[in-house]
Specification:
Blueprint (H helix, E strand, L loop, with lengths): L1 H19 L8 E9 L8 H14 L6 E2 L2 H10 L10 H11 L3 E10 L2 E10 L9 E6 L3 H15 L6 H9 L2 H19 L6 H17 L4 H13 L3 H14 L4 H13 L3 H14 L9 H10 L2 H11 L4 H18 L5 H11 L6 H14 L4 H10 L8 H10 L4 H17 L3 H14 L5 H17 L3 H14 L4 H23 L3 E6 L3 H14 L2 E6 L12 H10 L1
Parallel strand pairs: 1-2, 1-3, 6-7
Antiparallel strand pairs: 3-4, 4-5
Helix pairs in contact: 2-5, 2-7, 7-8, 8-9, 9-10, 9-11, 10-11, 11-12, 12-13, 13-14, 13-15, 14-15, 16-17, 17-18, 18-19, 19-20, 20-21, 20-22, 21-22, 22-23, 23-24, 25-26
């Protein structure tokens, strides 16, 4: 009888243990991992981290649960270079759970179907690898917060935790700040992708304001910190950029994009050693966002005044790529100018400070350029920058371009660009003779290293000749342009227009020696009408570039001409 009682007691204990095997014990650490986006729709990728963020916020309010912070999960996985994608696999989830010191792991996925969402989750016991039944919620995307609460309730029940009605209400409201933060970041990203223009400061400022507001709701929002830091860097708010990016880096210390994005702000704020350390490490890892990234090492040493290390890295990096070599050549020349006493590191730093006001304050931009010129008045590069700061069609830039070339230390391509920009300014003023002279000098001084410059210079020279009525010269120059760049659409259009004009004039010359001369301002549309009328009338219409009224060299039937214009 006694043995029977003992057997019954053993069964009862075993039953209780089995019943509690899926239940969370007090202080059992729980890790909620990234949810897989089974839809493959990129605009909802944020939910991969968003769903666990909100669940973490909600479950953290349950008194008997210990939920591992999302930041700790990201940091741990980053430290061991473990990707969070594919964690819906239970074996991987158990491995991650052990790395995190978690007793229970919650994993899941979501599927977007039209305007609805299906969220599925599972609970895994790390020690036994036992998986609970699937928990899922389905509903409208705009009710995502309610769905998260419903899922949290299911998970709490699965974990065997009883909660009070008061705790339930706290859980219901938990995570609202995260959602508000994410909504603001989503709007900021929409503006930056759909509307962002580098020169539109209003749009840039709107994006920055949304990032700031998102961080007020959720100061640890990783997406806002990481992406926001990059946006602030691009807007040249370097100190703010560092603040955000370093906070993001605390969560994922090995994130290469964050470390790469910090290099430029570190240089601009004088943290040269940090910039060098990060960039050398990224170079050794083979990571770059742009081919020119390794040149930051040279720039940091240059600003420090360590010209020996500049020469060392110039020799080490030269030849890696043609694009990188253009930046290396630039620093090589600056070092040469400094060693010759033409320029100074101080002037370079002042110039970089000036560029920080490129979008926000033209007065400050010119102020720092002027200070740089005062520091190194023999450096033509500074006058070139001053001219460029006036814009592409401001005649005030011309004397500074001329002074820049007079200094004699501009590179051949910068000399070519200076002449081109002067020519462009004159063309905008309608002075095509002066424009042609300078476009020709731009062509003559081009080094030939950069195809784009060669093509651009020659095209604009051809256009100036066209405007001056030198059709044959323009025609041959355009032919050369199209040989270098067959896809140059503007050149092809002008070439076709001249071919049409030449063929039509030849044809009409054979029909009649009667000539009607028109004089007008330069207007391609009017000119085209004249050509069409020429074909209709059988006359050879000669288009003269002039500001005077029309002149008639031969008599003709006015009524017939009027009919021709009407028909055209």
């Amino acid at each position: 009888m006694k043995a029977g009682k003992n057997h019954l007691l053993t069964l009862l204990v075993t039953f209780v243990i089995l019943c509690q095997s899926n239940s969370a014990q007090v202080n059992d650490p729980i890790a909620i991992l990234e949810f897989d986006n089974n839809s493959g729709i990129e605009e909802y990728n944020w939910l991969s981290g968003g769903i666990p963020e909100i669940l973490t916020s909600k479950l953290s309010n349950v008194p008997d649960l210990v939920v591992i912070e999302r930041r700790q999960i990201k940091k741990t996985l980053s430290d061991v270079a473990f990707t969070q994608t594919g964690l819906v696999d239970p074996e991987k989830a158990v491995t991650v759970g052990k790395m995190l010191g978690a007793d229970i792991v919650i994993l899941g996925s979501f599927q977007i179907i039209g305007k609805s969402i299906l969220i599925t989750s599972r609970v895994i016991d790390v020690e036994t690898s036992k998986i609970s039944g699937s928990k899922n919620v389905r509903g409208s995307l705009d009710k995502i917060f309610d769905l998260e609460f419903e899922l949290a309730e299911q998970l709490i029940e699965e974990l065997g935790i009883k909660i009070t009605s008061n705790t339930r209400e706290i859980i219901r409201s938990a995570g609202t700040d995260y959602l508000r933060s994410q909504a603001l970041i989503a709007e900021a990203e929409r503006i930056s992708t759909e509307l962002y223009e580098l020169a539109n400061w209003d749009q840039i400022q709107q994006t920055l304001d949304l990032i700031d507001e998102a961080l007020k709701y959720n100061p640890t929002n990783y997406q806002a910190l990481r992406w926001g830091g990059i946006v602030f860097k691009n807007a040249k708010f370097y100190e703010k950029s560092i603040e955000l990016l370093e906070k993001a880096l605390e969560q994922t210390p090995n994130d290469q994009l964050i470390r790469s994005s910090l290099v430029k702000p570190y240089i601009e704020t004088g943290s040269y050693d940090k910039a060098i350390e990060f960039q050398i490490a990224l170079l050794n890892e083979g990571y770059q966002t742009d081919e020119s990234d390794p040149a930051f090492i040279i720039e940091a040493y240059f600003r420090k005044g360590d010209l020996n290390n500049c020469h060392l890295w110039i020799n080490k990096l030269r030849g890696h790529s043609e694009y990188l070599d253009t930046f290396i050549d630039m620093f090589d020349k600056r070092i040469d100018d400094i060693e010759k006493g033409v320029s100074s590191i101080e002037a370079y730093i002042l110039m970089q400070k000036a560029y920080g006001f490129e979008f926000t304050a033209q007065d400050s931009l010119h102020h720092y350029i002027d200070l740089a010129i005062e520091t190194s008045p023999k450096d033509g590069n500074l006058y070139f920058a001053k001219a460029f700061a006036y814009g592409s069609n401001n005649i005030r830039g011309i004397p500074y371009y001329e002074k820049a070339m007079e200094c004699g230390n501009l590179s051949p391509d910068d000399v070519s660009t200076a002449y081109y920009n002067i020519g462009y300014i004159y063309s905008r003023q309608g002075d095509w003779n002066s424009a042609k002279v300078n476009f020709q000098k731009a062509v003559d001084n081009s080094s030939g290293k950069v195809l784009f410059m060669q093509v651009r210079n020659l095209y604009d020279l051809a256009y100036a000749n066209y405007e001056l009525g030198k059709i044959n010269e323009a025609y041959e120059q355009l032919r050369e342009v199209l040989t270098m760049d067959p896809d140059y659409e503007e050149a092809q259009l002008l070439f076709n227009k001249i071919e049409f004009q030449k063929s039509l004039m030849d044809k009409q010359q054979q029909k009649s020696d009667v000539k009607i001369f028109f004089a007008s301002r330069s207007n391609n549309s009017v000119q085209f009408i004249y050509w069409r009328c020429s074909s209709y009338l059988g006359f050879s219409l000669m288009y003269l570039k002039s500001n005077t009224a029309h002149q008639l060299k031969e008599s003709f039937d006015v009524e017939k001409v009027t009919d021709a214009f009407s028909a055209t």
